[in-house]
Structures are given as C-alpha cells and as structure tokens.
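step 3/5: co-fold with iron/sulfur cluster
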Amino acid sequence: MIEMLKDYINQIESCTECEMCLDVCPIYQDGKNNTLTPLYMFKVTKKILNNEKLEQEDINAPFSCPKCEACSNICPESINVPAIVAELRNELFNQKYTPLKNHAAISESILKNENSVNKTPDIRWDWFPKDEEFPEDSSTLFFVGCLPCYFIKDGVVSSYNILKKINYDFRLLKDEGCCGSIFYDIGNMEQAEILYKKNLDKFDDLGINKLIISCSGCYKAFKNFYPEVTGEKIDVVHIIEVLNNELNKGKLKFKKLDENVTYQDPCNFGRVFKMFDEPRNLLRPSCNLVEMEHSKENTICCGAGSAVRSAFAPLSIRMALKRVDEAEKAASTLVSTCPFCVFNLGYAVRKNDRKIKVRYITDILDEALV
Ligand code: SF4
Ligand code: SF4
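step 4/5: write tokens
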C-alpha cells in the first residue's frame, strides 16, 4: 500500500547520488539507460507519492529489476533498493498499471494448470523413473517446483537420485502445484495469500512439516514470502543444505571428476541467504572448482530473477550472456543451485552458439558420488 512506500522516503532522501550502485547494477550496465537504475526507482516512488502521471518507462523500471541486491550490498547509506522495488511493484498493481501482459499469462497458467510454465499438469512427473514407486510416505516433502519439473529435468533426476542413494527420508507430492512466488513478485498480494494458504493447508492435511527445495525462487517464497503474507512458517531447507549436512556427517563420499567447473552464486541463495560455502564444500571434492572474477557477495545476476525473464526477455538474456562471458574465461562447465540461472544461462549459451556446459549443481554431485 502507498503507506508502505511512504516509509521508504527517509531512505530515499539519504541517497547522496554517489552512483556507486551504478557500477554494479546489471540492468544499468546493460545499456547505460538512465531509467534502469536505483536512482530512477526513487524518482518513480516520488512520482507515485505526488500523484503524478506515470509513463511506461516508470512502470517498466521496477519490473526490469531482478532484485539482485548488488546495489544494497554496496550502498554506503544502506538503502534497501530491492525492498523499494517490491513496494513499487505492489503499488503499481494496486493502481492497476499492471500486471504486464506476460505476467498476466503466467498468473492465468497457475490458476488453470497449477504451474507457472503453461504446461499440462499430467506431464509434470514425466521425469520420474518409470520402474520406481512414487514416494508418498514421509513428513518431509521434496517440493520440486514448476520450472525444474518441466524444463530442468536432468537437475531434478540427479537431485532425486542423490536423495535416494543416501536413503534420505522424503516424499513427493503428485498434485504439487506452484509455490506462487510470481504473485508476490508482481505485487498481486491477494492471489498470493489465497495460493499460499491453500498450499499450507494441503501440507497440513498430509502431515507434511518440512520442505526440501531445489529452486532458489521457491526457497525464497517459502522462507520469506509465505510467513510475510500468511503469518505462518514452515521448515524449509535447500537440497544443498541437506547434502552439506550429510557431507559433514561423513555420509557422502565423492570421487573427483576431471572437469573444470565454475559456480554461479544465485543472487537469492548467495547475497540474500548467505549460502556461499555450502555449495563449494560439495563441489571441491567432486571436481576442479574454479572461481569466476565476480563471485560470492560480488556475484553478477543471471538476469532471470523476480519475473524479469518473463517480462523483458531480451534484457534478461543479455544479462545472462555477460555472465556466460565471464564463466567461459574460468571453466568448461558452469553450475548453479538455482534452476532459473540454469535455464537463462543455458538459453543464452544455446542462442549465441557458445560452448560452455550449463548444469544444475546436483548433476555434477550425482556423477561424482561413490
Ligand atoms: S549507492 Fe546508495 S547512496 Fe549511492 S547513489 Fe546508489 S542508492 Fe544512492
Ligand atoms: S537490485 Fe540489482 S538490478 Fe535492481 S536496481 Fe539494484 S543492482 Fe540494479
């Protein structure tokens, strides 16, 4: 609501226009467009608070920002730009400037197909091994997610294989549905609340009290958006946290693959949740891990997050290609703990005829597991 946007005015007024954020902002660095900067987000905020008429570029600005947190990470005034962007998106939705066309289509797909990728629900489990029994007897759910189930199937199979090989107690859920992170991301809080409550009730009815997640988008949704929107919490762990714990207990052993691998820190999993060491602890004994010039806190966004890929694909793919350029200098394989990174970076590689392999992290770990 507009009241919440007002709360950020003090932060906005503390901006000294030092422009340090511009050096790290991937949407500004893409084309040096002055409407794609943290400073422009502040301008749009002031226009809304002053009831001024908005232009299309004012609407596009917050929806082009993947909320990568690079600016807030570097800002000497600690201005929380991604939080301001989130409030702008809410207000634009409330004032009916949005949803943008492609976001409306995704929302419709979730309501109609229970997935965000406009596919029929009956092919969601096509990746599941034909000769195995569908696991349904545990209070821990491996919530696979829409994008992985339909588009990052190798990553899902390798994650599932590892959990099975180490006899981890987990189940899957035939009518899994969508986590609904996009409703939050596009500012449709009413729909977010309906879906989040429906999912939590479903888990409750089935005695599910813990989620294992392989997608950074689902992870942020269940960990942050669900409690914020519904007031209810559920125990959520990323599969990399699960595997890192098992490694520490001595339950995972790897052989070292002869492969130079570089790791993309996803903005959410890394800068937001500070999961920098866990993936590296697993990769180090499994392959030759080589760091890119920008990593950990200084990672560069893959360009896909916060529904930017669906609204502004060319911008998103150019951001991915920039990351691919850096990865190619370091290694022959690029891995990530986020299926959105794998999807977008992999797309940029194929579209531009690049050679580097882009894989979900468990593809490497499953191959190296002994
Ligand atoms: S880094 Fe912070 S203070 Fe400097 S221009 Fe950006 S938002 Fe303003
Ligand atoms: S969150 Fe990332 S993309 Fe958005 S304004 Fe900040 S640096 Fe730019």
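step 5/5: annotate
The pocket of iron/sulfur cluster (ligand 2) is lined by residues 24-27, 38, 65-71, 81-82 (CB under 6 Å).
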